[in-house]
Design brief:
The chain has 295 residues and is α/β, with parallel strands linked by helices. The chain has 10 helices and 6 strands, in the order αβαββαββααβααααα. The termini are far apart.
Length: 295
């Protein structure tokens, strides 16, 4: 057995080697963990909020990559439909379409699939739609301002007046204004009363509220749309809220765009009726419509 003693050394002989081994293990563990600790300390988790996505270029937009619920943007002419669509595209990056063949619009062309790849479809008349849509955002504006804007944007001999920013000449107010108001004010009233009875989800967007409180009003519209694939950039719309579809006010028109006592009486009554209908439909308060009235 003595010949094999070297294979089984005594505890006294092994002790120094055990101590040395433990020391080396402890040292190596320490040196490995130290750089990890240093790296962790060098890159602490930032508490700063994530940077917002860059805003799209003015006028830029794209078709949605996923199907959306088809939504109509319905309004009486002169209510700010084109400007509202500019705001919506700027806030979402998604294109809008139109049932009209305007040069600046994405045409709907009767294809339902296209209506599901844009955010909203512009129309002033439900009969113009080639198919029924899933829901509607309806823009309403002070009828006095609305009729003046609608008169300015009319076509002469079929040629549009510089799209949405032109003005009618003074001669047109002298010759045509009264007749235009008499016919249009009745359509304004009947349209909004009929639209309050639509058997589809609706959101009433008040134009002067959108002008005065763009961010909360815009967020209400986007909440109504409730599209999970849309990541709104409200700050982008606030930066570029003017767009190129705002008609500059001409002071001289206030002297020519005169409403008769009969016309004002009709419009003031229409404001009451429309307000009541929409409060009943939505359960919301539209008392600010009363500010539209003229004595």
């Amino acid at each position: 057995m003595a010949a094999l003693d070297w294979l089984y050394p005594s505890k006294a002989v092994l002790a120094p080697f055990v101590v040395l081994g433990l020391f080396l293990v402890a040292y190596n563990v320490g040196t490995v963990s130290k750089p990890c600790q240093i790296q962790q300390d060098a890159s602490p988790v930032s508490s700063e909020p994530r940077m917002q996505e860059p805003c799209p270029l003015p006028g830029a937009g794209r078709f949605s990559r996923v199907k959306l619920n088809s939504t109509g943007l319905l309004s009486f002419p002169g209510s700010g439909n084109t400007w509202t669509r500019h705001i919506l595209t700027t806030a979402t990056g998604i294109l809008t379409a139109s049932v009209y063949n305007n040069q600046e619009d994405v045409p709907l062309t009767g294809i339902r699939g296209r209506a599901q790849r844009v955010l909203v479809v512009k129309t002033h008349n439900l009969d113009k739609l080639p198919f029924s849509l899933d829901r509607y955002v309806i823009i309403i504006r002070n009828p006095y301002d609305c009729l003046l804007a609608a008169f300015n944007r009319r076509s002469e001999a079929g040629v549009p007046f510089q799209q949405h920013i032109a003005h009618q000449p003074k001669e047109a107010f002298l010759d045509e204004w009264d007749t235009f108001v008499d016919g249009s004010m009745k359509h304004w009233s009947s349209n909004y009363l009929n639209w309050s009875k639509l058997q589809k989800p609706v959101h009433l967007l008040v134009y002067h509220r959108l002008l005065a409180q763009l961010e909360p009003e815009l967020r209400d519209v986007i909440d109504f749309l409730h599209e999970p694939s849309i990541h709104p950039m409200i700050h982008c719309a606030a930066r570029d809220k003017e767009g190129d579809a705002h008609r500059q006010k001409e002071e001289w028109q206030e002297k020519f765009a005169v409403f008769s006592h009969k016309q004002k009486r009709y419009l003031n009554d229409a404001i009451d009726t429309v307000q009541e209908a929409w409060e009943k439909r939505t359960g919301k308060n539209f008392a600010d419509f009363q500010k539209w009235k003229r004595p």
